[in-house]
Amino acid sequence: MVAAGGNHTLLLTEGGQLWWSGDATSGACGLTSTAETQEPVFQKIQLSKDGGENNATTALVAATWEASVIVQNDGEGKATKVYSFGAGLKGELGLGELLVRSPSATLFKEFPPTGTEVVDLAGCMGHVIAVLSNGEAYGWGNVRKGQAGSPEAVIHSPRKIEGVDFKVTRAVCGKDFSCLFGAPDSGKLLILGSDKWSIKSSAPETMPEWQDVGASWGNVYVLKKDGELLAWGRDDHGQLPPPSLPKLSKIAIGSEHVIAFTDKGDVLAWGWGEHGNCGPQVENNDVKGRWNVIASSRFIPPGSKITGIGAGCATSWVTITTG
């Protein structure tokens, strides 16, 4: 899994190991040396000087513009240990008003509440949403547009989102909104925050059964159980799904672009592609109303397999496992 901030990227492996790349100056990549920060490769993260969290299993990861939030398993294998690191002047770290920068991972106190685990974690430029095993959702950061419910303010520590009439199982975050989802077959969703790009007013009243969900800065994406991609919101750079899109098995949503994996083994990209993140073929920096194939199972060495995709702030990632 890939989580990306403004200039840093975190990579979480299936085994729960955490790696980083990018600009480490904010502290969002953990404790680093000068030599490490000059290497343009993924490196294993150091969360503290000598703490057990360096070797603990990480379950979830999210990023704001200059901060990272992770959830690790406790001694019983439950996802109860929430840490943040990096910089956040508007509550992004979730550690109280006094702590606005920390390169070492700092543990949240008294969160999640006793008896609960964190089952999903989402972040965007300035805020974070955590979903708990009891179906509650909590938010913190710059949520002055109502991204974490009322009151609309800067929140420096996790606050429960009130008024949700269903059990939340997933959350996704855009720049000025959050979207909470019930169970995949429940049809339930709730969008909090600004209605910019008609993100609230153009949302469907009920959700079809889905297998994955995601958000860009201005869109919500729902990958239906049957492989069809449903989306709404901003489309000035071609962010919405192009016509005649084939059936998909995976999606990864970047800041203003989409990476998708088809049933036939192609990796597609569309949307805002100014920085090469949608491949070389763009018109006015966009891939609009169509898609580029940026990788394909047909064009990799025998015995190799495309096993994952990721997307960040104008960055795209394809994981290829070699035999």
From TrEMBL:
It comes from the Eukaryota. One of its GO terms (molecular function) is guanyl-nucleotide exchange factor activity. One of its GO terms (cellular component) is cytoplasm. RCC repeats lie at residues 80-134, 135-184, 227-264. InterPro entries: Ran_GTPase-activating, RCC1/BLIP-II, Reg_chr_condens. This is RCC1 domain-containing protein. PROSITE patterns: RCC1_2, RCC1_3.
